[in-house]
Amino acid sequence: MITAHQPERFRRVLQSLLVAMVFVIPFSIAAIEILFPLLLVAWLISETGQATASQRTLLRVTEKAVLWALGLYAGTCTLSVFYSEFFLLSLTGLVGKTFEYTLLFLIAFRAIQQPSMPERCLQALLLAAWLVVLHSLLQQGAIARAVYKSTVRDPILGRTLEYVRMQGPYKNPNDLATYLMVVGSIALSDILHQSRIVWSRYALVALMIGSMVWTQSRAALLGFFCGAPLFLVLFWKDRKRRWGILLLLVAAVIFFCYLARLTLREALTLTDIGSLDRATMWKTAWAMIQTNPLWGHGINTFMANYTKYVGDSSRWPAYAHNCYLQIVAETGLVGLVSFVAFLIFLGSCICESLKIRKDPLLAGLAAGLVAFLVQSTFDTNFYALRQAALFWTLAGIAFGLCVQILRNNPQSI
Predict the structure, then answer these.
(1) Residue 327 pLDDT more than 60?
(2) CA 257, 259, 265 angle in degrees (round to 5)?
């Protein structure tokens, strides 16, 4: 039996678990899987002590629309299980991915509204970012020393690097770039809002952006450039910061061109292996979509259907490397529309909140989430556990901050 004091105790536990989740995301899939059920239990118990019905009435129409659109997307994914040719595979994906990510969003949304939580989550992100950057730089040093060797070993984890590019605690440089792109945007927003110079923060941002470029991930660089204009809008009247952001972006482009100089022509003309493979994956996804455009083939079945539609039996099953094409292939246009509706309503809440208050964490989250969504056009972000957990957790935090800002503004009610 739950006593009157237990919900408050579990709310404190929930807050600590969310901070831990924010910290461990780049380091361990196992840690995410262990923390999630603990988060869920703490959240359910803590909610029993709150007047949730009366609190929901405080949500504005656009805020309710975010939750309704998310529910519609989860419902569409649930429905797709029942017409999937691979019922158990779809059911596993629904429970282990869609439901888990949806609950992560809701848990983060509720937990972040406690007064100390935004700062605690920001500190956890920055500490994790320092460890990821230092790990990545040590890898780069090992790569530079082993330039004439066929294999390079990770100086921290001891494993052989699959790519001769820094990848940090991840297995792919693009995954590392995703993390640096998103968290780098948050760290950049944080230092832009500070009235005094904190050199450690500046150093971290410089190292994160430099490391992101060092991965040579074109999609991450494009995503970062799509999110960065948000800072220009927020600080357009501040000439010093405006020119500082522009110079930073120009420096990133020059550094990228220097690192990719040997393969730049192939990259620009899309004749490199990565681009050609993606073209095949996109054609395969389009072939799946054409057979069932409205409802798709069932959640979590893209790889199971891949060899049937690729037209080349020698090719290994793969993700679409375009999350939006894969959403349509699996859950149809209905699934994509509901997911995009969720993004639009969430974006509307963020824009409205930033007009009221230029919250540094919310501004950084907005830029990072935009960058993530852009990169998802060329990669598997929503289908890799650590990337997906990063998006849904930070999106929930952003939504919670929006609700907090709008609720504290009498004119917005």
Answers:
(1) yes
(2) 55
CA distance linking residue 406 with residue 57, whole number of Å: 13
Tell me, yes or no, if the pTM score tops 0.90: yes
d(CA 276, CA 396): 35
Position 63, amino acid:
E
* Residue 97 Cα distances to 70, 77, 218, 243, 384, angstroms: 14, 10, 27, 42, 10
Give dist(CA 130, CA 174) in Å, integer: 18
Report phi then psi at 168, rounded to 5. Answer: 55, -140
Instruction: Record the tokens describing residue 55, joined without a space.
Output: 């609190």
pLDDT digits (tens, 9 = 90+) for 130-187: 999 999 999 988 888 876 666 788 888 888 888 888 999 999 999 999 999 999 999 9
Q: CA 223 from chain center: how many Å?
A: 11
Per-residue model confidence as pLDDT tens digits over 198-210: 788 888 988 999 9
Ordered DSSP codes for 147-209: TTSS--B-TTT-PBPSSSS--TTSSSHHHHHHHHHHHHHHHHHHHHT-SS--HHHHHHHHHHH
CA atoms within 13 A on the CB side of 219: 24
d(CA 372, CA 391) in angstroms, rounded, equals 8
Q: How far apart are CA 95 and CA 368, in angstroms?
A: 27
How confident is the model at residue 317, as a pLDDT? 85
81-89 long-range contacts, Cβ below 8 Å, gap at least 24?
Answer: 81/298, 81/299, 83/295, 83/298, 84/297, 84/298, 84/299, 84/301, 85/297, 85/298, 85/301, 85/304, 85/305, 86/298, 86/300, 86/301, 86/304, 89/298, 89/300, 89/301, 89/304
Which candidate, 392, 393, 365, 388, places its Cα nearest to that of 376?
A: 388
Highest mean pLDDT among 71-80, 241-250, 356-365: 71-80
Report which DSSP code applies to 313. T
Task: Tell me the DSSP string of 223-292.
Answer: HHHHHTHHHHHHTTT-HHHHHHHHHHHHHHHHHHHHHTTTTHHHHHHT-SHHHHHHHHHHHHHHHHHHHS
Q: Which amino acid, residue 171?
A: K
Cα 138 to chain centroid, rounded: 25
* CA pair distance 114, 136, nearest whole angstrom: 34
Q: How far apart are CA 234 and CA 347, in angstroms?
A: 15
The Cα 344–Cα 338 span in angstroms is 10
